[in-house]
Design brief:
Rossmann fold; globular; alpha/beta; single chain; 10 helices; two-stranded parallel sheet; binds NADP nicotinamide-adenine-dinucleotide phosphate
């Protein structure tokens, strides 16, 4: 497919999703400024950077998404997840660019008990969710050429900033070391392999079907089921104790059920998302390839 965008600016390009988007848009001219070079906490820098780069597409994956830290520092949460999105959306319109913003399943309270559609009313439970929902709304007020993509439970080959190895990697390493593992069994979500999400974002962004999309791997599971399946696919015996979320409380309230359904992708006749089990399978294949490449025998 020919590149529909000439110049693509990707914010958060060192992150799990951002790094996959850089790969997905490799046939375009991409700008991927590091956090240190373009800090979303400084809106004036955003305007200057876009005026200079003149991108035709801006994709914002950068966020302050440490959920408990957002609770402790709402000012920073709103600065990065809300006000910076407003500045980015406005600067995109001024530069003549399409604006795409990545949001979260945490805009929902989890009380529906079934997968959320784009048409369901958000009701966030914590500062992070409120700041992201406000960012979604501001992404859409500056002009008609915007996309908001809500995703969930991202994992990929790049680590999450400030969090260390992603959950699935911690589980696999723990199982490989024979460590006892205890995982929450009563919180259900849609785990999503970042390359799958990036591929679908690229497909949607190549169209003019602007608006709000849920983009996750298909299906849902608890964190415990996710850990057990990862370890089983790795060929190990899963020895994982399921614990109640009440036993692992954080500062912020979290939705107990935040699986996302893909009504907008279906309406646009985009290909169905792979299942979360296929996501895990792909992750384990890529992990094994990385380990082979770094083993002394391959050098
Ligand atoms: N991770 C999840 O499970 C999950 C679930 C639902 C929705 N989301 C949403 O998906 C998006 C991508 O998440 P992710 O997991 O790919 O994140 P990630 O791996 O933590 O990457 C975040 C990226 O944003 C950059 N960044 C952070 N603060 C910044 C700032 N003030 N200015 C400029 N850049 C900044 C980081 O750079 P440094 O590392 O250098 O700081 C990093 O490149 C986010 O919008 C998040 O809200 C994530």
């Amino acid at each position: 497919m020919s590149a529909p965008f000439e110049r693509v600016l990707i914010l958060g390009a060192s992150g799990q999703l951002g790094s996959e988007l850089v790969r997905a848009f490799a046939d375009c001219e991409t700008f991927a400024p590091a956090h240190g070079h373009l800090d979303l906490a400084r809106p004036a820098d955003i305007r200057a950077a876009l005026a200079q780069m003149r991108p035709s597409l801006v994709i914002n994956t950068a966020a302050f998404h440490q959920v408990d830290a957002c609770e402790a520092d709402p000012e920073r949460a709103f600065a990065i997840n809300t006000l910076a999105v407003d500045a980015l959306a406005a600067a995109s319109v001024a530069a003549g660019a399409v604006f795409a913003h990545v949001s979260t399943d945490y805009v929902f309270d989890g009380r529906k008990g079934a997968a959320y559609l784009e048409t369901d009313t958000p009701k966030p439970l914590n500062v992070y969710g409120v700041s992201k929902l406000a960012g979604e709304l501001l992404a859409a007020v500056h002009g008609p050429r915007w996309f908001v993509f809500r995703t969930s439970g991202l994992y990929g080959s790049s680590g999450v900033s400030n969090k260390g190895p992603v959950f699935v990697e911690r589980m696999l390493r723990g199982a490989e070391n024979g460590d006892p593992l205890r995982v929450v069994g009563d919180v259900v979500f849609s785990p999503s392999y970042a390359p799958h999400v990036a591929k679908t974002l690229r497909a949607v962004l190549a169209t003019e079907r602007f608006g709000l999309y849920h983009v996750t791997d298909s299906g849902s599971c608890s964190w415990w089921e996710f850990a057990v399946e990862a370890i089983r696919l790795r060929g190990l015996e899963p020895r994982v104790e399921a614990v109640a979320s009440a036993q692992a409380p954080g500062a912020a309230r979290r939705p107990a059920y935040s699986a996302l359904d893909h009504g907008a992708l279906r309406a646009g006749r985009f290909p169905a998302m792979p299942s979360w089990q296929e996501g895990l399978h792909a992750y384990l294949q890529a992990r094994a390839a990385r380990q082979d490449a770094s083993s002394p025998a391959s050098m």
